[in-house]
Amino acid sequence: MSDEEGDLQSSLSPAVKVGGMRIARHVREPEEKPLPKSELMKQAAEHNSEITAVSANDLVTREEREFHDRTVKVTHSKPQPTVTKPHQDPSLRIIQQPLK
Question: pTM for the complete prediction?
Fold first, then answer.
């Protein structure tokens, strides 16, 4: 009888009793196991080794360095709006309140 009980286990998790009611738990086990920390570090090192940055020594002339600095500044700066939004004066705001 004990062998049959071991074979009859369902894949569904049991219900939990909360506040006098039974609530089914809908929790599934992840199919893929997370990678160990050593594997993650190795993958990160491989990925970071592929990324290369332009160093200041690689740019030959002063004009090239200045142009590079300007392009970096433009790409990282926030664009300025072309049209200003209309703003109301805070003293003119009407607050509607219910009647008593």
Answer: 0.24
Paired tokens of 86? 């209309």
| Dist CA 78 CA 59 (whole Å) | 26
For residue 68, the tally of other CB atoms under 10 A from its CB is: 14
C-alpha 56: how far from chain center? 32
pLDDT at 60 over 60: yes
